[in-house]
Write a structure and sequence with these properties.
By secondary structure, the protein is an alpha/beta fold. The protein is built from 13 helices and ten strands. The strands form two sheets. The chain has a seven-stranded mixed β-sheet with strand order 1-7-6-5-4-2-3, sandwiched between helices. β5, α8 and β6 form a beta-alpha-beta unit. α2 runs antiparallel to α3. The protein is globular, with a radius of gyration of 22 Å. It starts with 25 loop residues before the first helix and ends in a 5-residue tail after the last helix. The mean pLDDT is 96.
Amino acid sequence: TSPPPPFGHALRDFFALDKNYTNLNHGSYGSPPLSVLEAERAWELRMESNPDRWFRYDMYKILDAARRIVSEYVSADADEVVFVPNASHGVNAVLRSLKIPKDKKILYMSSAYGMVKNTLKYLHDFDEAQLLRVDISTPISPQAILSAVSAALESNPNSVYIASISHIVSVPGMILPVAELVEMLHSHGAMVLVDGAHALGQIPVNLTSLNADFWVGNGHKWLYSPKGSAILWVRRDRQALVEPTTISWEGRGNSHFQKAFSYVGTKSVSPYLAMASAIRFRTWLGGEEKVMSYMHTLAREAGQVLSRMFRTGLIVPEDMSASMVDVQLPTSNKTTGTAIPTQLLERFGTWIPVYTLADANKPDVIAIRVSCQVYNSIDDVKMAGNAILQIIRELEGDSKL
């Protein structure tokens, strides 16, 4: 194959994105390369060409081969990795499998993803699980996060059964000090579930050295694999605790853990198999360091450019960000903030999440999260920044912007 073009707009032709759409929200849904979609389609056709051969004979050995490739990517033993449709399935599989003693608690942070909070609410409402929330306030720093969790553990000695923490928070898009958190939580006798929904493909991941108890990560966001592709890693000594969200037990594998997750009813596994193609595409681009370095450098520049344009500042310190950057908007009007994403989509051919960062001790801050990918350039960011300023002027009539 020919070498890849320079990163930036020249790479757009290798993705399925509409030519009139500027994707600055890769972090939400991802965007697989055309070659990965073609690989997924090829697996679909092979499955449908002979369903009996596929489901009864071929599927499991092909799944095993793909699982070994993905396991190597995250520096994990393949026997500790299974495929799941997305991080939501993985989180639910873990939290809803555990038989949590009535006198124990589940620790989580205020920055947890909505799905995690809703799953915990379900467990609280229906299973009477006790929850321990750790509030993360501004200014944000690794030490502030570690101190907040440490204070919660000290105030609740020997009472945390499991903690659910993000590897990279969704909004704001910040990398948490997961290695230090895992060590701290383990020292207090708590198991740790890491929600790595945004980690695969955005930052290096080494699950063996991290040594959490459970870890789940999406492929469809930053790894470039299709929707419906994710992995769940469960440390070998914890595998007896976890079952899939759908019980079938009709699969195959060298352990109950592998067997239970390998088949959860008749479904396409093509998105899982295409994860290997996504990793090959990344290799073709030049490898992990080149891909991640470009995205991170662009995100850092984007934060600086937007901060100057808006005359505001970053929500998250640069050293806690990877390929997503969060910038305060030059408005405190929540109605304006709510209107911005739709107007960006309908009028300017892009979409950026806008959210309110609430802090009990400070006024609410309205911010945006911009995702930077190999097919983006700083011109995309400047276009979006100017569009946002125009929308605010039109809605608020502020000539000072």
